Amino acid sequence: MDKNIRNDFPILSRTVYGHPLVYLDNAATTQKPRQVVEAIADEYYNVNANVHRGVHFLSQQATELHEQSRETVRRFINARSTNEIIFTRGTTESINLLARTLAQYHSNKTEMGEVIVSQMEHHSNIVPWQLNGFKLRVIPMSDEGVLDLDTYQKLFTPQTRMVSITHVSNVMGTINPVEDIIRIAHEHGVPILIDGAQSTPHMTVDMQALDCDFFAFSGHKIYGPTGIGVLYGKEEWLNQLPPYQGGGEMIKNVSFELTTFNELPYKFEAGTPDYVGSHALAVALDYVSQIGMDTIHQHETELTTYAIKQMQSIAGIQIYGNTQHLSAGPISFNVQGIHHLDLGTLLDRLGIAVRTGHHCAEPLMHRLGAEGTVRISFGLYNTIDEIDTFVSGLRRVIQMF
Ligand code: PMP
């Protein structure tokens, strides 16, 4: 990876407690390149106007940027049509949108039905289904964090309404075999959502190759702004589902007696959209595309492999998940006899930003028999030197206990 890339991220050259910042919390959110921050400022300074409704120049220009951004997203994930790209606030809202509209879609049935999830889901792929009345059936995993696909096959019933699985675990970094998981769902005639929050920033994701029915990701985890994300849905599914929220933009005609709804994708985008966020997200996607997702994946895989090797030589460390199958994603660990929060706090004093706790995956923590873990996670700008700093910092902190 070109060292100059770090210059695009001003925050990386700041210090924390007198130490150069080592930012290893990328699974929570990534830092933003100048290009993205400047795109936001530029739009507010020079273009700002509400989209879609205006005849005037600025409104048309803002609309053009917003709709071009949808096309950038389409291209980035290789969807068939921009009708399949719904802008949301992020992965969480994307899953809530789907859970709510799917519940309405099935509301005439005597039972709401079941959704198959896995033991390693983020809370945002558990709670929305529960809130909307679905029963969860759970794919178990091995001690190494590998999903049990034989049991998965047996979880389907006539009441299965959806399979909803994370692509990459936000705790262990496991890349799930989503191609097989999608194929099996379709063999049972059941649609499937892939939670791409932790995969999209680290590898090429291709909707037509994957053939999933729905896919969700967040802009802020892929060097874009907070508050914008995407729900991809196959057109035939999105056409069948009812609208999510009501308001401006999502309607065709409104009267007090009868309202008709707009076509895709606007049917699911009530109110003024985050048109500045969508543009900045497109700039972020162009930024990573220019580097190349394969280059990013390779770089981060090297970092992960190197980090695990270094960490394994530390006495008393336990790394969760199958260390052979770890992706470019996060690495979770504990050190015997030291609370994860203490480790995180003391690493922070050395300028090393890590995350501690249950990582919004309490059922997974129960499965791993851990109350919480320390998690490090990489972005395209991290370096081998930073891993060395982290590992020697970790050794120092352990010695203090
Ligand atoms: N799913 C996974 C796997 C995640 O890692 C996260 C974020 N930690 C989410 C969903 C939720 O994403 P957001 O908070 O951006 O909506």
Number of domains: 2
Named CATH topology of the largest domain: Aspartate Aminotransferase, domain 2
Strand neighbour order, sheet with most strands? 4-10-9-8-7-5-6
CATH architecture of the largest domain: 3-Layer(aba) Sandwich
Mean pLDDT equals 96
Number of helices: 13
Low-confidence stretches are none
Q: Which ligands accompany this protein?
A: 4'-deoxy-4'-aminopyridoxal-5'-phosphate
Oligomer: single chain
Please report the distance between the alpha carbons of the first and last residues: 36 Å
Quote the beta fraction. 15-25%
Order of helices and strands: EEEHHEHEHEHEHEHEEHEEHHEEHEEHEH
Question: What is the C-alpha radius of gyration, as a whole number of Å?
Answer: 22 Å
Q: In CATH, what is the class of the largest domain?
A: Alpha Beta
User: What characteristic shape results from the CA principal axes?
Assistant: globular
The major sheet is characterized as: 7 strands, mixed
Topology:
Layout lengths: L14 E2 L2 E2 L1 E2 L10 H13 L10 H21 L7 E4 L2 H15 L8 E5 L8 H5 L3 E5 L9 H6 L5 E7 L11 H10 L4 E4 L11 H4 L3 E5 L10 E5 L1 H6 L10 E4 L4 E3 L13 H17 L1 H20 L4 E3 L11 E5 L4 H10 L2 E2 L1 E3 L4 H7 L4 E4 L7 H17 L1
Parallel strand pairs: 3-15, 5-6, 5-7, 7-8, 8-9
Antiparallel strand pairs: 1-2, 4-10, 9-10, 11-12, 13-14, 14-17, 16-17
Helix pairs in contact: 1-9, 2-9, 10-13
The structure holds 4'-deoxy-4'-aminopyridoxal-5'-phosphate.
4'-deoxy-4'-aminopyridoxal-5'-phosphate (PMP) binds next to helix 3.
